[in-house]
Fold this sequence. Notes:
This protein has 14 helices and 14 strands. By secondary structure, it is α/β, with parallel strands linked by helices.
Amino acid sequence: MSIKFPEGFLWGGAVAANQLEGAYNEDGKGWSTQDVAPQGIKGPITEVPTEDNMKLVGIDFYHRYKEDVKLFAEMGFKVFRTSIAWSRIFPNGDELEPNEQGLQFYDDLFDELHKYGIEPLVTLSHYETPLHLSKQYNGWVNRDLVGFYERYARTVFTRYKNKVKYWLTFNEINSILHEPFMSGGIYTPKEQLSKQDLYQAIHHELVASALAVKIGHEINPQSQIGCMILSMPTYPLTPNPDDVIAAMKSEHMNYFFGDVHARGVYPGYMKRYFRENGIEIHMEPGDAEILKHTVDFISFSYYVSICETGDDNKRNQTEGNLFSGAANPYLKASEWGWQIDPQGLRYVLNMFHDRYQKPLFIVENGLGAKDELITGEDGVPTVNDDYRIGYLNDHLVQVGEAIEDGVDVMGYTSWGCIDLVSASTAQLSKRYGFIYVDRHDDNTGTLERYRKKSFHWYKDVIASNGESLQR
């Protein structure tokens, strides 16, 4: 029996501005937190951008976007997820007036997408806080960032109200728990950051996100505004009740963000956590009302599942995107140690649907691997990435199963649809794309684009609306 996806399903791909645009100091752009993180999420930060930072050039999408959008259209994309670099619009983040050159770039990009009938799906803040806001204000620890973000959101919602229908407020908002600088622009070193300051920063982000929903709907009532969560389903390592409760607590720390976005209130389990950890969230008058502006849909990334246990000696045996837990003995892992679990995607979709009863959008999923460029039968360079095709096929089959389960799934955007600089490692050798970009970790390469085998496979998947997938 073939897989059936609903009519109008939004097939496409996903990227982030800081991982592919380059042009870090052109046309009035200010520095962002990404410009001083040359080794990725877990590496040290520098005072100023340094030449070893691959993201300063990315894949030069800033100058080559027309070529790339044409390739996306050739695959049949219905939607393209990207982000706006906040520091292109407000270079320091606290200016009163935006940078017109930055606004014009995204006008041109969105126009190019619409030329091919591709809907933009735009993330307002994707691991890219203006560096000035990080260093001078300590990022989202400071309440002032709510106002700066509100001004930024109002500016782009107004500018692009007739060009962008789908918006996301923060990328993987729950990742701030583990990477506060990259996710929340918090300049205090992670090991010195108190739980009080961390959760106050989270409160500020949640208020800002709800404000964005309110403002976006006022400016364009037809717009669809979602949150974006790093999903990592947590299984108990054994049926031992201690492991089951450990898994539940782990899930709570991620569900918390979706619960506030979808329900508009702080859940009881977090109030208990705050009490037991001496955390007192300071709420300004009106915050509780603002939080009631809930999202239209829930979007999320999915790469890996983890196991949890009550036995600390069995933890930290596997690597994930940002989180770690106990290794699942039933799963294999990728080259980077991420355990591969297609059924986990069906599980996540069902859990989110049961919990929130809102439409769901898978906005990141993919396989990072070291691709080998070869000469194809037609003499054109290509990559025989059957491993990527197998990975994506198996995950999309599970999306189809979830749809059969009754889950409302809006769309699917494969992560890194064109090779880009990895967020976690700042390498280009960790490739996700359907399109190979000739750039390498030593900063060499022509930046030429080549279609991989998976390019043609995904084109067939989209053209058949999923019927070409193999169970």
